[in-house]
């Protein structure tokens, strides 16, 4: 049996990502991999991503909606990192060549105009630091077989980060009722999921506050100019090659991905 350490799990997860190889949860081999250890491994994988030249572009939340929590069987929201290597431009297809079993989910995205630092930040204070609100689509990918993981596993795996696309419609946060903002996930013309901003912890600003307060416990803040993906509003859909997935927001436009 392998004896795992934080460093060797970080190495293994980054190798799985680079080699498009999935693996079993670490739970059986390392039951002590809890959320705290998971966040430490996540920090180590970020350190290695930066060392190879990637730049942090922001933060992502995970499991902020009941739909996602129920699907993954974990009801704790997650915080993880976004880098420039994960960013897609309009018209880019899902990078199937780099991903194992990608899924797509609709997210409300904040672009920060001011630095935000916890602890004790309220949703209202968090929203005041937001410059723009946009629609987004996150392409999640797990290094665990069939997306089967514990909370420690998925935190170590940077909360299943893969790629993300941000829509081109930008509004100010006070121009839109974010809790009421609706989205439809359309696969090849068929609506497969519907959700609203209220599905994200009651309001996406609650997710932003949660992220900044949680980051503060690990000595980090959210910087001006960063983007924040507030978490999948609905369950994700498989990015089946040949299909087109559109996250159709009521006011934030369409965010569309060809699945390669
Ligand atoms: C964990 C990542 C969750 C979200 O928005 O809920 C996430 C997963 O579902 O694999 O990004
Ligand atoms: Mg997500």
UniProtKB/TrEMBL annotation:
Record GO terms (molecular function)? 2-oxopent-4-enoate hydratase activity
Question: Which GO cellular component terms, listed alphabetically, does the Swiss-Prot or TrEMBL entry include?
Answer: cytoplasm
Q: Where is each Fumarylacetoacetase-like C-terminal domain found?
A: 74-256
Q: Which residues form the signal peptide?
A: none
Alphabetical UniProt keywords:
Lyase
Q: Does the keyword rRNA-binding apply?
A: no
Q: Pfam families, alphabetically?
A: FAA_hydrolase
Q: Which InterPro entries match?
A: Fumarylacetoacetase-like_C, Fumarylacetoacetase_C_sf, Hydratase-Decarb/MhpD_sf
Name of the protein this chain belongs to:
4-oxalocrotonate decarboxylase
**Species per Swiss-Prot/TrEMBL record:** Nocardioides zhouii
């Amino acid at each position: 049996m392998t004896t795992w350490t934080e460093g060797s799990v970080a190495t293994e997860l980054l190798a799985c990502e680079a080699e498009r190889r999935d693996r079993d949860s670490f739970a059986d081999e390392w039951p002590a991999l809890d959320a705290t250890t998971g966040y430490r491994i996540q920090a180590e994988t970020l350190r290695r991503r930066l060392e190879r030249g990637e730049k942090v572009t922001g933060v992502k939340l995970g499991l902020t909606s009941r739909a996602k929590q129920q699907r993954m069987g974990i009801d704790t929201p997650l915080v993880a990192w976004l880098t420039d290597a994960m960013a897609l431009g309009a018209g880019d297809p899902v990078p199937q060549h780099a991903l194992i079993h990608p899924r797509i989910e609709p997210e409300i995205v904040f672009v920060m105009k001011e630095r935000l630092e916890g602890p004790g930040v309220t949703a209202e204070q968090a929203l005041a630091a937001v410059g723009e609100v946009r629609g987004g689509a996150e392409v999640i990918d797990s290094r665990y077989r069939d997306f089967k993981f514990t909370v420690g596993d998925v935190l170590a795996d940077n909360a299943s980060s893969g790629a993300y696309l941000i829509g081109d419609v930008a509004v100010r946060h006070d121009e839109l009722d974010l809790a009421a903002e609706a989205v439809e996930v359309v696969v090849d013309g068929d609506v497969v999921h519907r959700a609203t901003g209220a599905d994200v912890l009651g309001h996406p600003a609650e997710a932003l506050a949660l992220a900044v307060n949680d980051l503060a416990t690990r000595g980090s803040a959210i910087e001006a100019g960063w983007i924040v993906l507030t978490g999948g509003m609905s369950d994700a859909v498989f990015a089946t090659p040949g299909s087109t997935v559109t996250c159709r927001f009521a006011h934030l436009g369409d965010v569309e991905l060809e699945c390669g």
